[in-house]
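Worked problem 6 (solution included).
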Amino acid sequence: MNIIVSLLASYLIGSLSFGYMAGKLLRGIDIRQHGSGNTGTTNIQRTLGTAPAIIVLLLDIGKGLAAVLLARALTGAPGVEMLAGVLSVLGHNWPLFHRFKGGRGIATSIGVLIGLAWQVLLIAVAVGIIIIAVTRYVSLGSIIGVLLVPILMVTFDLPTLHILFGTVLAVFAIWRHRQNISRLLAGTENKLGGKTALVKREKKVNER
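Solution. The predicted structure is:
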């Protein structure tokens, strides 16, 4: 019973879309109808600003960590902890409470990895940040960072279950970034610091 409770709770925790909530509370908008159309940190930054983006980022990270810690407290089984982490990412990407349209799962995956493989996370995040700083493409940094996760798990000689778990997270992230990959290849991907049409319209109105 504890296993079922922890797994169900993990998906429901992941389904709490803080990006969607931020859009409604701060602007009265559905954030999914603006910018990239997802509820992740980058779209929040472009549409609502940096401060809301940071708050949403921390809350989304917290979802992944909470799912792992809950499963650990209820079951103490590493396999259940990993499955709970995956379900929290699934909930973030396809949230029950928001018609199954959410984010891309990077922040929530970070939270999961904090609880399960922090040493892998540190390197993957560091590489991702460097790539973002150099190219200003958040999507590129996220994609390469998440691809490193299963590779680093092999490098650190972690158990096969961890490697499988890392591979699943990477597959989810790449699938959710498939449109970004297409735009990167076409040279049309938005760079960090860009603004959405909503922000540009508001700026023009304020300048009048």
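Discussion: The chain has one domain: 2-207.
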